[in-house]
Write a structure and sequence with these properties.
By secondary structure, this protein is α/β, with parallel strands linked by helices. It has helices spanning about 40-50, 65-80, 95-100, 100-105, 115, 125-135, 150-160, 165-180, 220; strands at about 10-15, 15-20, 30, 55-60, 85-90, 110, 140-145. It has nine helices and seven strands. Helix 1 (about 40-50) packs across helix 2 and helix 3 runs parallel beside helix 6 (about 125-135).
């Protein structure tokens, strides 16, 4: 088996744990408790640390959670558990870090999604506020670059642009064809990540052609069990009494 070549990166220190460059791969986990519940969060962090987790992430989504972070770290230190605690921020992280400086000092790293910090804004002032707090406290920052980290308005604008070019239209058609072939018929829809109001068209329901030449069954044919009209489709066989 050939050796695995790691990408060269900058070494980052999270508490006492080195990440990146030639540092060994570490295990990070996340709690599913309410961070404001100090006792439950401490117990779960301790269990994760005993199980081998070297980094533990907690969500800091409101003021109660931000106020509880220093107490969580303090109780873990009293137990002799020195696992670094990472704060996961969404939408209001710039407010919480400025309002609760003890939380900013107690956390070992900040996890930020730029698209969730400056939603609906034309600048990145909220994101800049969080970075300034990190610099003041000498804390590393994880900046999200995955799909969920993107600003939805930016994503919509960037994805609707390529349809104007020839290659964008070709990608649009390929996407529609794959969606049409991969989905069940009763749930089939035509979606495109490159489509907007000018290119997207709702598929029309094709109604079958209605024939104006209906079959008229005579009285003798009505009582004949072997009578068939093979040249007509079943949906359009109309048996009328008498001469019609």
């Amino acid at each position: 088996m050939p050796p695995i070549r790691r990408r060269k990166s900058v070494t980052c220190t999270i508490g006492a744990i080195r990440v990146g460059s030639d540092a060994p791969v570490v295990v990070q986990s996340m709690t599913n408790t309410d961070t404001a519940d100090v006792a439950s969060t401490v117990e779960q962090v301790a269990s994760l640390a005993r199980a081998g987790s070297e980094l533990v992430r907690v969500t800091v989504n409101n003021e109660d959670a931000a106020a509880a972070v220093p107490h969580i770290v303090e109780q873990l230190d009293k137990r002799g558990i020195h696992v670094p605690i990472i704060g996961d921020f969404h939408y209001n992280g710039h407010i919480l870090l400025k309002k609760y400086p003890a939380c900013a000092r107690a956390l070992a790293k900040y996890r930020i999604n730029p698209g969730n910090v400056s939603v609906g804004r034309k600048d990145d002032s909220n994101f800049g506020t969080m970075v300034k707090v990190a610099v003041e406290n000498q804390k590393p920052v994880r900046i999200g670059v995955n799909w969920g980290s993107l600003d939805q308005s930016l994503l919509t604008r960037m994805m609707s642009g390529p349809h104007r070019s020839r290659h964008g239209r070709q990608r649009n058609r390929r996407f529609k064809r794959r969606a049409r072939n991969s989905s069940p018929r009763r749930h089939r829809r035509y979606y495109s990540c490159f489509a907007d109001s000018r290119t997207w068209r709702r598929p029309r329901r094709r109604s079958p052609r209605r024939s104006t030449n209906f079959a008229v069954a005579r009285n003798s044919q009505l009582h004949s069990t072997s009578h068939r009209l093979p040249w007509l489709r079943t949906n359009y066989q109309h048996l009328l009494p008498g001469n019609g």
